[in-house]
Amino acid sequence: MSGHVGDLNEKQAKALQKFKEAVSDLLCPEQDDFYLLRWLRARNFDLKKSELMFRNHIEWRKKVSADKILQDYSEPEVLKKYFTGGLHGFSKDGSPIWIDPFGNIDLKGLLRSAKKSDAVLSKVYILEKLYSVMFKEQTQKVGSRVDQVVVIYDLENCSRRHLWKPGLDCFCEIVAMVEDNYPETLKIAFVINAPRIFPVIFHLVKPFLAEETAKKIHIFGSNYKDELYKYIDKDQLPSHWGGTSVDPDGDPKCSSKICPGGIVPKEYYRKYDLEAENLTSVEVGRGSSLQLDYTVKVPNCIIRWQFSTEGFDIGFGIYRRTKDSRQKAGDMEEVFPSQRVNSHLILEDGSIVCSKAGTYIIRFDNTYSWTRSKTIRYLIEVLEPEDGYSIPGSSSSQSLSSQN
Q: How far apart are CA 49 and CA 158, in angstroms?
């Protein structure tokens, strides 16, 4: 049985009754069986886990003032203009559709311009609007319960810049917030125009997804439109994604409802960066270098870095050992040419795809400085692709549940 109202087995029906009794001190009149079953399904009808999840949610609502957010929250201008995505149209069964051209998002620009807490709260605002307004309106309109959303993530233009750690951490925090406090809100999700680095991105996001959520996500290359048409009529889709809807000015992406993202102008940047926190600190002596070894177990892993120096520049390069024994930089395979960087002026960050397995050397070079040692603060990570996952072709799709 599905665990939804009208489709419960005997065990599920008993669990629902016991759950009502266990959380009766917290319930409001509008929290009906449809609502309560979301929490039970999210924890596979485990009463103790479902009750803990629900009680944690009530405490979380108090902390973020979720009950007042529609009246009190004011979204920062930079998020309104550059935080991708928006609600547009309805699926064939009446579910609202969220379309997010995530490949165009400037994560670094957004988090250098707005607080992470505001980025999270902006999503809380949208979810509260869904539950308080749109779901209720659609339920009355279609004559049956509507309490889930269809999501389309367009990853066109997605690249290694989306692996910037503070930005990806913020995205994962939003995913975790939704899973913990709005369970079973996703009806089905389509990830379209998936790039070659998608397995790495998914490997980082997957730990924050519930197993049932992952089963609802389907991955496509560029040939996705026929699949969308199974769930969405063309007049409910913007023309850019295969539908017939356009803005009054003819915009095929319907940017009046769906924020298209783009590079955040530096005028929005705050005067400081938060991403330099919690980095390892080490000193590189004058006339010397620091070499850090990292093991890449399989091809197509990504090495991601960010670092800063205090007061002066430093040389930075990446090499791959060609022998088991230690080698000098000049004897190794150069994969990221060494160059002096002004990491004392701005946090350096970047990433490379490692086409080969092996031992990679991150080298901080201070050999050119005979009078000054350099203090470095760094974070370096090796990101592996999701096990067994291959990039879907342009004419095929793949459910993430096959990777569980």
A: 37
- Two structure tokens written together for 117: 């807490």
Partners of residue 358 on adjacent β-strands:
296
Taking each helix axis from N to C end, the angle separating 165-181 and 47-64, rounded to the nearest 10 degrees, works out to: 120
Provide the whole-model pTM: 0.77
Instruction: Report whether 208 contacts 176 (CB < 8 A).
Output: yes
Residue 58 DSSP symbol: H
CA angle 274, 280, 285 (to 5 degrees): 120
Name, in order, each residue with C-beta under 8 angstroms of 281's C-beta and a sequence gap of 6 or more: 375, 376, 377
Confidence (pLDDT) at 341 = 86
Name the helix (H) or strand (E) containing 382. strand 374-383
pLDDT score at 387: 67
Q: Which helix (H) or strand (E) holds 305?
A: strand 301-309
**How many residues comprise the chain?**
404
What is the strand order of the sheet 280-284 is part of? 280-284, 374-383, 301-309, 348-354
Strand, coil or helix: 187? strand
Give the integer Cα–Cα distance in Å for 19 and 42: 13
Interior/surface letters 333-349, b for 16+ CB within 10 angstroms, e for the rest: eebbebeebebeeebbb
Joined together, the tokens standing for residue 242 give 């295969």
Neighbours of 388 (CB within 10 A): 8
- Give me the domains of the chain, ranges plus CATH numbers: 10-64 (1.10.8.20), 71-269 (3.40.525.10)
Look up residue 330 and give its two tokens: 């000049």
In the block, residue with structure tokens 């485990």: 46
What average pLDDT values come out for the chain (404 residues) when binned by 10 residues?
A: 88 95 92 94 95 95 92 94 97 97 94 86 96 95 95 95 86 94 96 92 92 93 95 97 97 97 90 58 94 93 91 92 83 89 80 92 94 93 76 44 34
Which residues, 6+ apart, have CB-to-CB distance to 358 below 8 Å?
295, 296, 320, 321
